[in-house]
Design brief:
This protein is α+β, with helices and mostly antiparallel strands. The protein is about 15% helix and about 30% strand. The chain has 10 helices and 41 strands. It has an 8-stranded parallel β-barrel. Strand 30, helix 8 and strand 31 form a beta-alpha-beta unit. Helix 3 packs parallel to helix 4 (about 370-380) and helix 5 (about 400-420) packs parallel to helix 7 (about 450-465). Bound molecules: (2S,3S,4S,5R)-3,4,5-trihydroxy-6-oxo-oxane-2-carboxylic acid. (2S,3S,4S,5R)-3,4,5-trihydroxy-6-oxo-oxane-2-carboxylic acid (GCB) binds near residues 176, 365, 532 and 607.
């Protein structure tokens, strides 16, 4: 009874990630958000002693999430809006020890710090964490002064990874995305009784559940709970809660002194399945540690019951049914904010992805906020999560350094444990384009990524036997000058992804399909996918003749219409290949990249279907919406191509109607059939001045129209 009351109390507040510290110091976990009260300064040359001695004038007040970096502008050339400093930022704040119960254990939890975090309390160094994307915790208890204020100091170091730099052994060593510095996700203080659900488990929740259909048709929830300082007389209870908040099944076990792990398998008789976007039904699992005097600690995690299967000829199956994974990738940054995203930002991004009709997200190239995976669970997105082992294993012609291997292993374990319970995740990525240095002869044959990939592959299987692994390859059998000792990555993981840019970086656009067929023939038993495909498109550069106009793939110009044409040519080649288990557009959103000066932008990768500030959905977004979404779509392309100087043009509409009626300046032009959701009238002659173009289509639920205005000016 006591347990049930406690359970209900927790469930009532279950959606809140933070609660205020309980004023009565009740002996249960309490969580205090550390959002405000921070002071920050960027000083690459400071020592910790300098930071501790520096008086108030050196610091500015900030709140979390925070990063000092801002990168990416829609203009040619950087302005003062850009801050691309890479080095050390310092954060300090106080923690009031008198508000904390000395009889409890106190932990700091950081959801992410870019890139290497070091933590001091009252001048004492407590922890270092290498890796910008995963949660870590630091126990403060033995260093806390419970009589008054405690000085917390955090250093965030995002130095450019170079030989000899502080970051030389922290993955990723390379990538076109910018590693932002700072405490760019949330942080909190967690207080727990001495006996508690483990907090020292690579940032993981301490409870890990794997649903398994048993022979009688029910589902066993095989759960592992890790404990700290367990005592005999205590019990662990697991409760499965349905979406209405009702406890549908429970299991419990007594623990003995010092027991570190408890395994329980509560059974669900006729579970409602988590069925992707069709029905992302979520249970939760709640683990409670209870002592003779009542509950001590409790952790709640998502739980979805589903089966997955990957087949080399038939593709992907969810709960026994074939699903064509039509996905996108997403980086975690926004114009003007960098990586310091709010919950509203994450929610907006997922809603845009869902609006387009995608059913899958490749969370490239690193673990993103836990909220992102919560959103994926709730939307029913099928997720590829990956460790940030990108592009490079080191700086010399040598195998990976032991420190880098260790860091990669740690980041892999952190990712798997922290996100283990999300049903949306179906595969763990162990590397992206780690063949590229060798492929282009930048490093010699000894700098082979495969030994490390093999370690990560085995490690992933040990940590989570229920999910297959995957690699995204850059180069196998693609055109271009490459060395003859190219390491083949296919086969190093259970599944394969190919990042392919035919008609963009190399080759002809129509070569994509035949190239994939060739790989499928070469590896008939490996499930293959297109892990990236995409092309740049700027918001202000336009063309009437995109196919014929040279596009500079790493420079300017990059007309938006070329991006449209490129996707129109690429998607059908992917769609018709049933053996592919998935594909992911690179990228859903324009994102920051210090190595790119392209399109009409500075420091931005322009392959997004949506602008960096999320204000503009580019034409190509509507191409996919017309292809993928169930919503009615009528969208006139080239709407930003104004003013323009050529009278002769075409009208191209993306629509999932069978035909659209077109009008120019109030006069009917023609009704054109939509072929594969693309409806074109060519040529059309504009008149000087403002031209009003209307496209109208009839759907079962009514008529929809789209209108654009194009100004024709003299040359
Ligand atoms: C790739 C990389 C990705 C880049 C992309 C590009 O293959 O995996 O990180 O951003 O190409 O745009 O070139």
């Amino acid at each position: 009874m006591r347990l049930m009351t406690f359970l209900l109390a927790v469930l009532l507040t279950a959606c809140a990630t933070t609660t205020e510290l309980a004023s009565d110091h009740s002996h249960a976990r309490s969580i205090t958000a550390l959002t405000e009260g921070w002071h920050f300064t960027y000083r690459d040359d400071w020592t910790p002693e300098d930071a501790l001695a520096a008086d108030a004038q050196h610091w500015e007040a900030v709140s979390l999430p925070h990063t000092w970096n801002r990168l990416g502008e829609y203009r040619v050339g950087r302005t003062a809006a850009t801050d691309n400093r890479q080095g050390k930022g310092w954060y300090r704040r106080t923690i009031d020890g008198s508000a904390l119960d000395p009889a409890m254990r106190h932990w700091l939890e950081f959801d992410a710090v870019g890139n290497i975090a070091s933590v001091w309390l009252n001048g004492r160094h407590l922890a270092r964490h290498g890796g910008a994307f995963t949660r870590f915790r630091v126990e403060l208890t033995d260093t806390l002064d419970f009589s008054g204020e405690n000085e917390l100091l955090v250093r965030a170091d995002n130095s450019d990874p170079q030989p000899g730099s502080t970051t030389q052994h922290v993955i990723p060593l390379l990538g076109d995305f910018f590693i932002h510095g700072g405490i760019y996700r949330s942080a909190r203080l967690i207080s727990v009784p001495i006996s508690h659900i483990a907090l020292d488990d690579f940032g993981g929740p301490g409870i890990y559940a794997t649903p398994r259909m048993n022979s009688s048709g029910a589902t066993d929830i095989d759960a592992l709970v890790r404990l700290t300082e367990a005592r005999s007389g205590q019990r662990v209870t697991l409760a499965i809660i349905d979406a209405d908040g009702d406890v549908v099944t429970q299991a419990n076990a007594a623990v003995s002194d010092g027991q570190r792990e408890v395994r329980l398998s509560p059974q669900l008789d006729e579970p409602r399945l988590w069925n992707g976007r069709r029905d992302p039904y979520l249970y939760h699992i709640v683990a409670t540690l209870e002592g003779p005097d009542g509950p001590l600690d409790q952790v709640k995690q998502p739980l979805g019951i589903r089966t997955i299967r990957f087949d080399a000829t038939e593709g992907f199956f969810l709960n026994g049914e074939h699903v064509q994974l039509r996905g996108v990738s997403r980086h975690q940054d926004y114009l003007g904010q960098g990586w310091a995203l709010s919950e509203a930002d994450n929610a907006r991004d997922m809603a845009i992805i869902a609006e387009m009709g995608a059913n899958s997200v490749r969370v490239a190239h690193y673990p993103q906020a836990e909220q992102w995976f919560d959103l994926a669970d709730r939307y029913g997105m099928i997720v590829w999560a990956e460790v940030p082992f990108v592009n490079k294993i080191g700086f010399g012609d040598d195998e990976a350094a032991p420190e880098l291997v260790e860091n990669s292993r740690t980041q892999m374990i952190e990712m798997i444990r922290q996100y283990f319970n999300h049903p949306s995740i179906v595969t763990w990525g162990i590397g992206n384009e780690v063949d590229i240095d060798l492929a282009f002869g930048r490093l010699g044959p000894k700098a082979d990524a495969r030994p490390l990939l093999r370690e990560l592959n085995a490690l992933s299987h040990r940590e989570d036997p229920s999910r297959p692994t995957v690699i995204a390859d850059c180069c196998e059998a693609t055109p271009g000058d490459k060395v003859d000792y190219l390491p083949v990555l296919t086969g190093e993981a259970d599944l394969m992804g190919y990042n392919r840019y035919f008609g963009w970086y190399y080759g002809e656009i129509e070569d994509l399909g035949p190239h994939l067929d060739m790989l499928h023939k070469r590896y008939p038993s490996v499930p293959l996918s297109v892990s990236e495909y995409g092309a740049g498109g700027s918001l202000t550069d336009h063309s009437n003749d995109p196919e014929g106009r040279p596009t500079n793939v790493t420079g300017r110009p990059q007309p938006e219409e070329f991006q449209n044409w490129w996707h129109e040519k690429s998607w059908p080649q992917i769609r018709e290949r049933r053996y592919l288990w998935g594909s992911w557009i690179w990228n859903m959103f324009d994102f920051s990249s210090r190595v790119r000066q392209e399109g009409d932008a500075t420091d931005i990768n322009t392959k997004g279907l949506v602008s960096f500030d999320r204000k503009v959905k580019k034409d190509a977004f509507y191409y996919y919406k017309a292809q993928w979404s169930d919503e009615s779509v009528v969208y006139i392309t080239s709407r930003r191509f104004s003013p323009r100087t050529e009278a002769e043009t075409r009208i191209k509409v993306y629509s999932n109607a069978p035909e659209v009626s077109l009008m120019l300046n109030g006069e009917a032009l023609s009704t054109v059939a939509c072929e594969d959701r693309v409806c074109t009238l060519d040529p059309v002659i504009l008149t000087p001045g403002t031209n009003r173009v209307t496209a109208r289509a009839t759907f079962p639920d009514g008529e929809i129209e789209d209108v654009v205005e194009w100004a024709l000016t003299a040359k």
